[in-house]
Amino acid sequence: MTGAATAPSQSTRMPVFLPCHVAPNWLPRDAADGLLQYAIANQDRFTDGRVHYEGEPKVDPAVRKTLVLHDLGEFAPVIREAARAAQAELQQALRVPVFVAGRFEIELAAHGHGAHFDRHIDTFVGSYRQASSRVLTLVYYLLREPKAFAGGALRMHGLGGRNKADSGVQDIEPHHNQLVAFPSIAPHSVSEVHCPGNDFADSRFAVNIWIHRKEGPK
């Protein structure tokens, strides 16, 4: 006689991930190469990346160790318009409800030797639960070829508590001129970068783009 089926135990459940979209060769090659050279040429203008605690930004290298630049110069409108043009396709691919875009938030990040960013989401940070209008996160990679560093994968985490071993991970390796997009509520991290020479030009560069929902009148 066949016994009744039993539900899988907590330890055998398959991890659940929010959808993620990868697009190689996202920009024309000359634009990608030009933006990479812009990042390298502006090394002295990068500052320590920050995280937010209770709504206040602070530098905490134990959580996030990276350098950032918010001025992309002539490349800012190029990135903004490319993100705007991709929004409809990304909404469909990521199964995000249609929304009207408001602000396009952009920063250029450089991950050198020892850089990393612990598990987080892009809508809420820490115990401060102020609503965020970020809907889509786009990460656009720029790096020298051949790649001079190891590590630096974008790690997508399965849904579940921070300490649950069965939440699972999916690693996406960075490649020059590659875009990775996901809902801003998806938990993710950046694995530690290993670049022994620590030449700034060999960093894992990435343009972080957040598409915000347009806020209505108060």
Structural notes for this entry:
The model is unreliable at 1-10 (pLDDT under 50). The protein starts with 20 loop residues before the first strand and ends in a 5-residue tail after the last strand. The chain has 218 residues and is of the alpha+beta class. A 7-stranded antiparallel β-sheet has the order 1-13-9-16-7-6-2. It has a domain at 16-112. The chain has helices at 29-41, 76-93, and strands at 21-23, 47-48, 51-53, 56-58, 64-65, 67-69, 101-111, 116-120, 134-142, 150-151, 154-157, 169-172, 179-183, 188-190, 193-194, 204-213. The chain is 14% helix and 33% strand. The protein has 2 helices and 16 strands.
Give a short synopsis of this structure.
With 218 residues, the chain is α+β, with helices and mostly antiparallel strands. 14% of the residues lie in helices and 33% in strands.
SSE layout and pairings?
Elements: E1 21-23, H1 29-41, E2 47-48, E3 51-53, E4 56-58, E5 64-65, E6 67-69, H2 76-93, E7 101-111, E8 116-120, E9 134-142, E10 150-151, E11 154-157, E12 169-172, E13 179-183, E14 188-190, E15 193-194, E16 204-213
Antiparallel strand pairs: 1-13, 2-6, 3-4, 5-8, 6-7, 7-16, 8-14, 9-13, 9-16, 10-15, 11-12, 11-14
